[in-house]
Specification:
With about 220 residues, the protein is of the alpha/beta class. It has 2 domains: about 1-80 and about 160-215, P-loop containing nucleotide triphosphate hydrolases (Rossmann fold, 3-Layer(aba) Sandwich), CATH 3.40.50; about 90-155, no CATH class. It contains 6 helices and 10 strands, in the order βββαβββαααβαβαββ. It has helices spanning about 45-55, 95-105, 110-125, 140-150, 170-185, 195-205, and strands spanning about 5-15, 20-30, 35-40, 60-65, 70, 80-85, 155-160, 190-195, 205-210, 215. The strands form 2 sheets. It has a 6-stranded mixed sheet with strand order 6-7-8-3-9-10, with helices on both faces. Strands 2-1-4-5 form a 4-stranded antiparallel sheet, with helices on one face. β1 and β2 form a beta hairpin. α3 (about 110-125) packs across α4 (about 140-150). It starts with a strand and ends with a strand. Keywords: ATP-binding, Cell membrane, Ion transport, Iron, Iron transport, Membrane, Nucleotide-binding, Transport. One of its GO terms (molecular function) is ABC-type ferric iron transporter activity. It comes from Demequina mangrovi. This is Thiamine transport system ATP-binding protein.
Length: about 220
């Protein structure tokens, strides 16, 4: 199929005894679709997401994109993006420099980088703020910058790990709609982790529930 395919994925953390955080999960996400993993803390959803993007090595199973096995491919070669709940922006860089960082590391020419930054700022509703310091922004604006930075290289999959959980309820509700619309307008495939059922329903095309390392 076109898109992400996960087959019998297992994640085990060393310990006495070992902890099996993900216990044989299989799922698929079509290109352009956003799927939410919903469940309480400790259910394995973030471990599953981390194994998909390559941050955590699975103990068994496979991750593939368009039929290509990525299970042992390093995280920086998978073509996936990741947005964390705190954004993890560089506080000493401007908004534009944060967004352009990955493009510069990839060797994109300066003019092309500048054009891509402006395109993304417009997409996330922050046009004109390229020169602003990220420490001057609100929490919601910082998360939109983090989203723009992750979208900059044109990832084939964007993984979002509780991206709105640090925001207040009103802002979280509004930004959930904005992020959904941004993913759809950019045609980006999404994998969202959240503990909030309302957020999952707003942001995702499909919601998969996890409990004790399994899809239920």
């Amino acid at each position: 199929m076109s898109g992400l395919s996960v087959a019998d994925l297992r994640v085990t953390y060393a310990g006495r005894p070992p902890v099996e955080a993900v216990r044989g999960v299989s799922l698929s996400i079509a290109q352009g679709e956003t799927v939410a993993l919903l469940g309480p803390s400790g259910c394995g959803k973030s471990s599953l997401l981390s194994a998909v993007v390559g941050i955590v090595e699975p103990s068994a199973g496979a991750v593939a994109w368009d039929g290509e096995d990525l299970t042992r491919v390093p995280v920086h070669k998978r073509g996936f993006g990741l947005v964390f709940q705190d954004g993890q922006l560089f506080p000493h860089l401007t908004v534009g420099a944060n967004i352009a960082f990955g493009l510069e590391m990839a060797g994109m020419a300066r003019a092309a980088r500048a054009a891509r930054v402006e395109e993304l700022l417009s997409l996330v509703g922050l046009a004109g703020l390229s020169g602003r310091g990220v420490t001057e922004l609100s929490g919601g604006q910082r998360q939109r910058v983090a989203l723009a930075r992750s979208l900059a290289p044109g990832p084939r999959l964007l993984a979002l790990d509780e991206p709105l959980s640090s925001l207040d309820a009103d802002l979280r509700g509004r930004l959930a709609v904005e992020v959904r619309d941004i993913l759809r307008s950019s045609g980006t495939t999404g994998l969202l982790v959240t503990h909030d059922p309302a957020e999952a329903e707003v942001m995702a095309d499909r919601v998969l529930r996890m409990d004790e390392g399994l899809l239920v």
